[in-house]
Amino acid sequence: MDSLKLMELRLYSPAKIARPRFKKHLKREMLFETLDEHRHYPGIWINGPAGSGKTILVSSYIEERHLDALWYQLDSGDQDIATFFHYLGLADQKRISEKAKPLPAYTPEYEKGIFIFSKRYFEALYGRMPTPSALVLDNYHEVPIGGPFHVMIREPFP
């Protein structure tokens, strides 16, 4: 990706890959401490009813703990795996050095080997992220049940 395109990407961030910011929110120190206690796990699932503050909790935790993070807003279009990897690659490009090579694009020849592609993609992605950091898949429930997405996303998190 040339430096002009990368600069434009850093200035323009599609809502799909932008971490939501909240001007006013209650600091939830007890929940922050619970998240701190579980950071050694490869993934943390936060579940609750709509409007209970899950997004605010995670966004404020990332801000409060000064974590490097990739934020990804899932929706029904992410059932298409190519779309998911495209936007995840954009999120990664937004936060890395201009000289870093982009992550591989998901193309039709990977369809039969999606699990291998997924595993290698996430290994490369996590290898570029500092420790500690976070990959947030917000609104996971928006991706329709069935199809390869849910199976594919489970692969990097055994």
Give the helices and strands, then pairings:
Layout: H1 3-11, H2 29-37, H3 54-64, E1 68-73, H4 81-95, H5 114-128, E2 133-138, H6 148-154
Parallel strand pairs: 1-2
Query: Percent helix among the residues?
Result: 40-55%
**Derived structural class:** mainly alpha
Note the beta-strand portion: 5-15%
Count the DSSP helices: 6
Radius of gyration, whole Å: 16 Å
The coarse overall form would be globular
Largest sheet: 2 strands, parallel
Task: Walk across the major sheet and give the strand order.
Answer: 1-2
Distance between the termini: 32 Å
Low-confidence stretches: 6-11
Mean pLDDT: 84
> Can you count the beta strands?
2
- Helix/strand order: HHHEHHEH
Please explain how this structure is put together.
With 158 residues, the protein is mainly alpha-helical. The chain is 42% helix and 8% strand. A two-stranded parallel sheet has the order 1-2. The relative contact order is 0.17.
Which keywords apply here?
single chain, 158 residues, mainly alpha, two-stranded parallel ribbon, 2 strands, globular
Question: Could you write a compact summary of the structure shown?
Answer:
This protein has 158 residues and is mainly alpha-helical.
